[in-house]
Amino acid sequence: MSSSRRTRLPKTLLCLTAATTALTSACTSVSLGTGVPATVVQHLGPVGPVPAGLTSFYGQALSWGGCAPYATNQSAQSSFADGTLQCARVTAPIDYSDPHGKTLTIAVMRVRASDQSARIGSLLVNPGGPGGSGMELVANMLRTWTGTDLAKRFDLIGFDPRGIGASTPAIRCLTGPQQDAVRVTDLDDETTPAGIAAYDHQQKSYAESCARNTGDGTQMLANVGTRDVVKDMDVLRSTLGDRKLTYLGYSYGTLIGTTYAEQFPKNVRALVLDGAVDPTQSVVDETVNQGTGFQTAFTQFAAWCAKQQHCALGRDPKNATQAYRGLVNPLLTHPVAVGDGRRLSYDDATTGTIQALYSQSYWGYLNNGLNDLQQGRGSTLMTLADVYDGRDPTGTYSNEQDAFNAIRCVDDPPVTDPTLQLTAAQRYKQVAPFLDDGRPATAQADACTVWPVPPTGKPHTPSVPGLPPVLVVSTTNDPATPYQAGVNLAKALGGGLLTFEGTQHTAFLQGIGCVDRAGTDYLINLTLPPAGTRCTR
Asked: Helices 320-328 and 283-305: crossing angle, nearest 10°?
């Protein structure tokens, strides 16, 4: 489960999203339920402190109904039809500095606490990204959530952050066919004037498309960052009737939780932050650290693979990087047909690999895909890449990739110095040699350098005096969010650190008994695990 930052390597960061959620959402079918009334109107009035000028938003009534109309992709059409799910829309200003101006809606999903007499309140969850759907996370959690102690005590709340999923207006840059075309086009060869010009044109064209195709255009793009998402969360907290926020954030969702704590410290009850993003790191340092993490995961995959009967990388893990590059690097010039009119590109193969490295449970899929590639077949790796990119079998894409780029471009200042761009590319190849395509590192100025609106955030050390104790969960060999980032975040927030010894992205509510017990005890009783607690499977 869970999720976080995405885009194609190595230009910016990968999605910090656990593969479990994405693959589960692609495969899960949930039986249809019965009985959500067509409309259940909840009106509580404002709860807790209300910022000036926002009373009408904090006190709005929520009309709860069935969730089927909120589905935005093929897999959601099935999972959202479950009758135990209730959905509603929350209205918020596009620009909080102009509360009387244009508005947007936040789509929200709820699973009611099974023991209303023991109910503590709402538990808001976010899967990361940026760009991940909290509604899809909740729908896919449903079967493992039911019957747990948390399910008895909390309403489970998933929301699609502004511009994402079922929330309106949606961030949208490219059509499905346009995204297919980008995926098979090699834009990484910037060693020639023509290659440089093609890459720069693609980045500028992408930024212009985002401004043109997103509802309310540049006004929306200027206000989709984490700074604004947490303001929506506080509106949601009030409309749900909670005086204090209880929140579970995975990956990029930890940045949402941290930013909420900075803006609304007195409104925090409990925060579980799993797979931490280090808010002090620059985009370059975070990218390089993530490359280190994925190389570690690849090395461990290679050791596992060598023990299998048919390992695509051979019996000696020391040769795995060379063997992998021997399989995928030819795709730079000779993509492989996959049978549906598309071709598996080098980018698709490495994206599919990264998708599988998020969790050990998907290493078998990766080995199968690499064995297929040896035989000139690319469908397995393409399926993994499609999951990562949010493409369903009909060719429809979620807007997660577009939202990721739009949010990252306002959350962090762009890297405009060519020397720094070149150094970053060189460092990445050094720390993640399995992803080295064999071509010289070059300076790459991504779409954020030509983005139509300025950034609204920057790296910094959070300081939240008086914040209630929070729980940070960090995994020792997390490929996407390095362990040390969790250590740093726990220290900055004065919170507790729970260590999981494993190789995967995020850990809470994923069947790891020690982690689940500690997190559940904290959310219900506000009791942190003893300092130094370490969990294994």
From this structure: 100
